[in-house]
Amino acid sequence: MFGTVTIALFSILFTIWILRRRKHFSSFLKLGIPGPKPNLLFGNMWEMYWKGPLPCLQDWIDQYGNVFIYFFGLRPVLVVMDLDLLKQIQIKDFMDFVDRPGLFELDPPREPGEPINLILIFLRGTHWKRVRGVLTPSFTTLKLKTMAQTMDETIDDFIRNVDEYSRKENCLDVYKLFQAMSMDVIIKCALGVDAHVQKNPMEHELLNHADVILSTSIQSLPFLIHMSFPAFGWLMKIIRTLEFKFQNKGSDPILDLVEVCRQVMKSRAADPGVCSNIYFSTNFVTPTYTNKTLKTSFDIVAYYATTSSALGYTTHLLVQHPEVQEKIRQEVDELVENEGENLDYVSVHKLRYLDQVFSESLRVYPPVYLFVNREANTDITYGSIQIPKGMAVQVPVYHLHHNPTIWSDPEKFDPERFSPDNHNRSPLAWQPFGYGPRNCIGMRFAQLEAKMALARMVQKYFLRPCEKTEKKLTIRTGSAIINPANGIFVKFVRRNSLK
């Protein structure tokens, strides 16, 4: 009797669950926007899990066009690659899309007071506007000129590492050196101290912690289950923590990274003079060490990952295109010879062709491929397209940059696309840093470091392929960032060795 009642009750509850699930999906399908049919269990995550996010999105774009809906687990996402519609969403009606949706969170839904809400990219509404306003002065021209000196000193260490390691190894993974350099730059500028990451660039603990944190992938079972069954978020968080500890030799990499930042902030509070060269505003959000260190730790990881990947991709393209590399070298040599200038903030901005090359590299390989997202805070309609309040809007940056209707021969690396003569293209077609008022606040900072490092590198070395150099680069797709899966292997030949 008891067994029969239990089975009947379970059947009723399961039927209710199925009906609610169907109603959830069908309510968005009624909007009349095309898109792949959602699976009752996983939305459209199952297809993304098996194919990978980049190929999967490309299949949907080919089938459904520049505007369509898919379900990121239970969450409906409106993908927009139409430039006119993007202009409305990202610029004209920005205040209706001021917030970012929490698409990539493995944690349970965030409460307003949680520390993670203190991170700029997760802030919402007026809180975001206030914090953005406080942070913006950290990236003025005057501040960037000052930070360029710190960057230059850090790039000196990078060049010394290239010298040292290239003597030992004919084929050097320069991506690891870029990671160490980028980590040193952001820690010096954000925390005002030298972490000496470049003294151990191949296995420094900060690099190991950051790599483990960034290892979360859309193509992981915990991610798939959590996005499809949010009620199990607490369990997936435990599993993720155990995975992190396993990869990080028994300790939680997030807590380890936060602890490093906490110790630095304690020392800074005890003796402010020790960190007099800090440039970023990091103390405005909250008086507690826990919250400040969480925010700073996330900033460090995000900047380190994107900048080092961008440098790696550009170096790979320069190896594959020696004529482009030589043109940059000639431009740098001419600047230094004619004007007798060091490569600082002012002089780097005179390297127009280098800027074209870096911009084209970011088009071909945008490090952030799925994080340019917005959330509608009101019901809004554009022609036949209805966007209900709460719906996530996603800009598929990688596919936007490879759209043949916008970019001719998009798979070709061609820096001339960004020459002064080519301004007949919508600025929204290029979004490695997003676009509009909520674009990446550190864009100019990242561009400055990257161009200074690239200019110094090609000024001193010829970059050649070696036996481990990939002709077609293998890409690893994380939850929001793409990076080189197998490193960037280069043979460095000192210029004076050929004379």
TrEMBL record:
Pfam families: p450. SUPFAM superfamilies: Cytochrome P450. It is found in: Endoplasmic reticulum membrane; Microsome membrane. Its cofactor is heme. Keywords: Endoplasmic reticulum, Heme, Iron, Membrane, Metal-binding, Microsome, Monooxygenase, Oxidoreductase. InterPro entries: Cyt_P450 (IPR001128), Cyt_P450_CS (IPR017972), Cyt_P450_E_grp-I (IPR002401), Cyt_P450_sf (IPR036396), Insect_CytP450_Detox (IPR050476). It is a peripheral membrane protein. It comes from the Eukaryota. Its main location: endoplasmic reticulum. The keyword Endoplasmic reticulum applies. PANTHER family: CYTOCHROME P450, CYTOCHROME P450 FAMILY-RELATED. Belongs to the cytochrome P450 family. This is Cytochrome P450 3A24-like. It comes from Limulus polyphemus (Atlantic horseshoe crab).
